[in-house]
Fold this sequence. Notes:
The structure holds 2 protein chains of 2 kinds.
Chain A: H1 2-13, E1 21-29, E2 32-40, E3 44-50, E4 58-65, H2 67-73, E5 77-85, E6 94-99, E7 104-108, H3 109-114, E8 134-141, E9 145-152, E10 159-165, E11 168-172, E12 175-180, H4 183-189, E13 199-205, E14 217-223, E15 226-237, H5 242-250, H6 258-262, H7 264-275, E16 283-288, E17 298-303, H8 309-320, E18 327-332, H9 338-351, E19 356-361, H10 367-376, E20 382-386, E21 390-392, H11 397-406, E22 410-418, E23 424-426, E24 430-433, E25 441-444, E26 461-463, E27 471-475, H12 476-481, H13 495-505, E28 509-520, H14 533-560
Parallel strand pairs in A: 8-15, 17-18, 17-20, 18-19, 22-28
Antiparallel strand pairs in A: 1-2, 2-5, 3-6, 4-5, 6-7, 8-9, 9-13, 10-11, 10-14, 12-13, 14-15, 16-19, 20-27, 21-28, 22-23, 24-25, 26-28
Helix pairs in contact in A: 5-7, 8-9
Chain B: E1 3-8, H1 18-32, E2 36-43, E3 53-56, E4 59-63, H2 77-91, E5 95-98, H3 108-115, E6 120-124, H4 152-158, H5 164-178, E7 183-186, H6 189-198, E8 205-207, E9 231-235, H7 244-253, H8 256-259, E10 263-267, H9 276-288, E11 293-295, H10 304-309, E12 313-316, H11 326-333, E13 338-341, H12 344-350, E14 355-358, H13 363-373, H14 376-384, H15 392-402
Helix pairs in contact in B: 2-3, 4-5, 7-9, 7-13
Amino acid sequence: MKKTLKSVVKKLLGTPPQQHVTIDTVARTLDGYCVIGWYFSDLVSGIKVTDASNQPIDVLRDDIERADVAAVTGKQATGFQLLLTTKVTLDELTLVAALKNGQSQTYSLSSATVGTQQSLAHIQSTTNSQYCNGACEFAIVTDTHVFISGWLTDAQQATSLLLNKKSRTVTEDNYELFRFTRKDVIEAYGRGPHTSAAGYSVLFTLSEKLSQKDQQLELEFSIDDVQEKMSVNQVFWGAEEPMMNTKRILDNWSPTNPYHLAKADVVSTPILDLYTRDTKVASTRYDFGEQIEQPQASIIIPLYGRYDFIRYQMAHFHRSGEARQCEIIYVIDDPSIAAPAMQLARYMSRLVSHPFSVLKLGENVGFGRANNIGVENARSDNLILMNSDILPKSPGWLDKILSSLDADDTGIVGARLLFEDGSIQHDGMAPVRLQEYPGLLFNDHPHKGWAVKLSPKAAEEAPCRLITAAFWALRKKDFQAVGGFDHAYVLGDFEDSDLCLKMEEFGKTNKIRRDVELYHLERQSQNLVEAGKWKHSLTIINAITFNKRWKQKLEAMQDAG
Amino acid sequence: MKKILFISHGHPELSKGGAEVASWNLYQQLKEQGFDCLYVARSEPGSHGGSTFSVRGEELLFHTAMDNWFTLSTKRLKPLFDDLGDLVREYAPDIIHVHHYAHIGFEIFAALRQAAPNAKIVFTLHEFMAICMHNGQMVKKGSLKLCQQALPADCHRCFPQHSPGDFLLRQHYLLDQLDNVDCFVSPSHFLAKRYVDWGLPEEKMHVIENVLPEMTSFPPAPIKDGEKRARLAFFGQINPYKGLDVLLNALTLLPENLRKQVTLDVHGANLDKQEPSFQEKINRQLDALSDCVNLRGAYESHQLPGLLADCDWVVIPSIWWENSPVVIQEAIAHGRPLIGSNIGGMKEKIENIAGLTFEARSASSLAKTIQNAIEPEVYDRWQSSLVVRSDILHTHIALLNSL
Lengths: 561, 403
């Protein structure tokens, strides 16, 4: 009741309540979390973190000067860094700010990292049915499908679902449904058969594309031969915010549940709709320094989330001079960092004489497509695909890698990659089963975290079937012959192993140079696509796609050890 | 005679840090030797008409700032690459003697290299800031444990907002910039070794002490028969790293009859700027020692000779490594032996040379050392063996001529 009232007030006032505390980041530590943020010094008297039972958590606090905030807001701000020692999960933790006016504000730490504040579940029925309560919370419309999510206390009796626009049926029968438990519905309507699987996700296949004017959608269903209707509360146009809509679609899907896993198509189909659309992506190329006439190789480096790597890599390339005859192309695959990344690129062009280029993409297209576009722009037939968090460890890497690429039978050449402490990050990949996901094979990094001297693999060139795309050398014509990275893998998982296997089918041998060592400061850039439940679910969906395609090969590889 | 451009991160008349004073002394003495020198000292942005430079006496003030204390970077490239660049091209120095990058930005080395491709860039290391983000203390935050080296995983524990990988990138970036330097000067072997272990090439490293202005050595004050050499003095900031609490604790551990004879003058300031818990600790200790400790406050450099003349021993109980504290050189030049912690720069400059050392951070070890030191024959032995090095300036000149 209180929540509804609050939201009414919110609507009337038209603005959200003033946030006095801003949480910048929440990161995992060895024994808990690190929370960094700031608050207005004149409004907040103190902060603490509590668990689900409102008990305060052990906190080690450091104050951080936030002149930056003061400069922007014109108000005095207190920065903080909290080290929490706790075993509980993030969604049980709340930051409580005591305000100087005697009141307090709470901030959920889990929403601070995920960024999608779930619309606070206020359960409100919108059906006129005499038999049950229910609602259509949202619909996500793609070119070919409509995904609808909501709840119904129908004891799973509803059948014959229809999708209407302005009371005209647009699709019937052609749907797939899956049902699941909703705790909030049980809380509101009590436990019983009627609420045992009140949640539903339904995917309708469209026979014709919906127009953006069709904002009023309606779900029709029948119970005991009585037709009932609910209108959809919110309609999202999928292509407008693909990542946010992916999160929405995956919100109620739990891959560790075998029933959910079996119903993966309901969620994977609309997500693939969002990411495999063949839209033309605008790109602009900026060249810095005098470009190489005939580059020895083109080094493609996608940037997402973090752009400061340009500073470290270009400083390195300039000093070492080793890649002086290479074309370096940074691909900015993140419009939100485009401006500061371009600024840093211009800055580095003053600092270093090493030429490089920046390809600015008009939208976020994901790791695979960003590389594909980078490759289209490459002028050399020798490609080096490199993550932004790669830094060569010692000189000589380029010549060795390119000499391996010289052999006719070579497909992809990889290298031994190291963490910052010198331990192995990648020494070639292998398929592995995980107990939680029977029937699926994942990519394993054998000997990850081991000291190099403990690796059973010799520091030399060797055939290697699966190699991480964090660092690859290959020929442009081979890359394009197998079609580049496949769009079917959403937001970067398995597209590299997929391409490795395609290269094999193409008749080439993939190789690893274990005598070439580069640092790969893994999960520096990727981490910025927040690690969260939805991202994990997406990995599973990509795994399903990958396994469907390569099941036999992968199982044979695993059997061979 | 070679033409030398000095770059300092502050003018000693405006900011009296060790590096500023050391660069100033060398500049003055090289000028006296007939070198053509120009001294450029960084100052706050916002000079007349927004100009990058202004004049103070014969020196130039360079108005710029640093913006990123992680990579020690400036985003202001115009003052560095254009304005300082023009100045360097015009002045055309043979040698550029850089004494700090703080408040200027680590990119200064690339800017100087671009502006003067053939000049020799000499960089004097004055502290560990490039190695350790914790203000170069090489002491862990919180626990205050000593660090032998900067391992990215350890640095991350001090600064959880930066990943271990970030610290590796930071180190590589700074080393990449320092590749522009032709010759490094370190005032202590200890500091030099830390930087070589961190990644600087050993063949470019030269250990030469900072030059000092001429100073008078005072004979020991006369004492009566049976009197001890028990007037101790502490010089420096009062903060947790300088170890005043260890020294005060040591005094309370002295046997009653000795404690009555010992006095300690504390010449230092900024206790009021420390954490409340540290202030309380020091104040509690001072209360318990009100019979023998005098808090004398800050001093000006011209007062230092008089303050040294008034004491027998100078005590440096720092719990961090120190580099080459100028007060050690000054004490020696004025004829006063020292008692110091047995780590880092203190051990190097004091042990078996200018006095006694004790187990760093141990009040009981310091108490025992004081007990020994105040015996007149021990004092006389160390006081009479103090040697003021007269070859430092010439070593500097020889290095510059060799470049």
